[in-house]
Design brief:
Layout lengths: L2 H6 L3 H13 L11 H14 L3 H8 L3 H22 L23
């Protein structure tokens, strides 16, 4: 299991694609002290490990205020991407639901 998958619950390529998309859409930018990669890493590590701010301070060697600020910035950025990648359920059910032999699997 790769370090990326263990710590962030995603493959390196997916992580890099997410970082690139956040940069491309200008939702996050590198700062003097911290790169977009590290900002996203802090966010994903917190989610994957249910890590506290104190744990994140230790792992990433930043102050609690810096961790909170960048976590919030990534959360805001990810939220803005949801309209692109997450769609509400369709009003028209998938065709498989119209086939009687599949009804037992979708009753609940």
């Amino acid at each position: 299991e790769s370090l990326s998958k263990r710590n962030f619950r995603m493959e390196v390529g997916v992580f890099q694609a997410l970082v690139n998309k956040l940069r491309e859409k200008q939702l996050l930018a590198d700062s003097r002290a911290i790169s977009v990669e590290e900002k996203v890493a802090i966010f994903l590590y917190a989610l994957a490990k249910n890590a506290s701010n104190e744990t994140l301070q230790y792992e990433f060697q930043h102050s609690g205020e810096t961790i909170s600020r960048h976590f919030g910035a990534v959360l805001d950025a990810i939220t803005q991407l949801t309209c692109v990648y997450i769609r509400p359920p369709s009003l028209h059910p998938h065709q498989i639901l119209r086939r009687p032999k599949f009804h037992p699997f979708f009753q609940v």
